Amino acid sequence: MSKNKKRIKKKNTSPPPTSVRLSQCMIVKNEEKNIKTALEWAKDIVYEQIVVDTGSTDKTVELAEKMGATVYHFEWINDFSAAKNFAMNKAKGNWIAILDADEYMPEEDAKELMKILNLIQRNRQYIKEYDSVNCSWVHLDDAGKAFSVITQQRIFQNRPDLRYEGTIHETIHIRNKTYNAEHLKIMHTGYAQTV
Hints:
By secondary structure, the chain is α/β, with parallel strands linked by helices. The protein is 23% helix and 32% strand.
């Protein structure tokens, strides 16, 4: 082989990793009443739990650490996107679930979520097509009954181009498709009258 010939680099055609590592991320402030439920639902399915505290004066941080979450501190600057993106940037998983402290998934839905993420992750075409998973966001009243249901995207691939925008009513602009899993529920207790 001539010394002058250039070596041709092989294009990387290796498939994406087939295992799902789900990072649970949340931002909190004074959530000692909710933090246990907020972390407990995901304990058996997530790769890591990241809690970003924005200035709690109660036992939120202590309880989160006791439950095994990694806690970071973020000085509140009146910007929900900045705080959520800070949390997401700490995530090492290839998927992120970003729920608030007053939200949780039922156990059977959490297990089903992992089946869906594994289906996407193991399919080379799906992993290119689907940036996120769409779930039902169920608002509960004081009796624990649903009074409103809409859909939201709270489960995303962990990629730098998928981050929140807007200081309030923050959104992520999905570049590709969203996998429709409206049968999965994110339960939200924050609109109950007692809260």
